[in-house]
Amino acid sequence: MKLVYTYALGAYAARRAGSSPVSGTTVINRKASVIEVKNITKTYGKKPYTFVALKDVSCEIPDGASVAIVGKSGSGKSTLMHAISGLDRPERGEVVIDGRNILTMSKNKVDEFRAHEMAFVFQSFFISGNETCFDNVSLPLEINDFSHSEIRKKVQKALSAVDLLDKKDQKAKNLSGGQKQRLAIARAIVNEPKILFADEPTGNLDSVNGQKVIKTLFDYNQKNGVTLIIVTHDPELAAKCDMQIHVVDGKVDKIIGKKGGKNA
Ligand SMILES: Nc1ncnc2c1ncn2[C@@H]1O[C@H](COP(=O)(O)OP(=O)(O)O)[C@@H](O)[C@H]1O
Ligand SMILES: [Mg+2]
User: Fold this and answer.
1) Does residue 240 sit in helix, strand or coil?
2) 3 state SS of 239
3) Cis status, amide bond into 21, omega within 30 of 0
4) What class does CATH assign to 2-19+33-257?
5) Nearest CA to ligand 1 atom 16
6) Which residue among 43, 46, 78, 232 has the greatest number of ligand 1 atoms within 8 angstroms of its CB, and so is best to mutate?
7) What is the DSSP annotation of 10-69?
8) For residue 95, what pLDDT band results from cuts at 50, 70 and 90?
9) What is the reported pTM?
10) Which atom of ligand 1 is closest in space to residue 72's alpha carbon?
11) What is the pLDDT of residues 203-213, one digit of tens each?
12) How far is the CA of 81 from the centre of ligand 2 (A)?
């Protein structure tokens, strides 16, 4: 999980560590992305100890949809999420986002693309307890050349969206579990991603806090039109999404639309 975090925040972390900055652009009127996954196969390990985690998986995720990737533990949900986001590379197939195949991009290009277009919320919140809520949320903005006042505005907007503005100057370690996860959501949305990924975002929360986190994610999806992709094994949560991609043993078993109709 630490590795995933390092990857997900790679560009920000690199900037913080003083390595060469990734060029930043301010994009106005950001729209959600259409994602086409075509026949991807992902094998872990080296022969003879290989494990095929995704087998010829295809799906299409429309602009601004809320999508659940559902399945039992070990079925390949996280692997699929990592493939869609370019965190991991399947050896076969295509992942086309707004017409660009991210599997043929260089690693640097994918990292840059991800830093500008995508954001992640994980089961473990990856919050820096000794930093204030403001500083936790402003972290992803460091790859851009925003002025102090722009940063302040963006962080305040993100904290307001998750109902934590009053905690702005508090150290993050003083927050409850649910608040920490909402803080992680604020950090994810502060740079206005087009695609928001959440991998088991309520896994470490009690049901009351879990509900609030889910509401925060769906509110953001609906108000801002970002594509929301949630990895979950919770059928109740999956049923709230526009679309459910059911994964069984590394294969797409079925894709269901919200009204119960099958899309594929
Ligand atoms: N780095 C890895 N090396 C080898 N096997 C892996 C690796 N990551 C995941 N797997 C295996 O791939 C399968 C799918 O994993 P994962 O996508 O994490 O499942 P899920 O998120 O549905 O629980 C599991 O059997 C898991 O053990
Ligand atoms: Mg998983």
Assistant:
1) coil
2) helix
3) no
4) alpha beta
5) 76
6) 78
7) HHHHHHHTT-PPPP----SS-----EEEEEEEEEES-TTS-EEEEEEEEEEE-TT-EEEE
8) very high
9) 0.86
10) 22
11) 889 999 999 99
12) 9
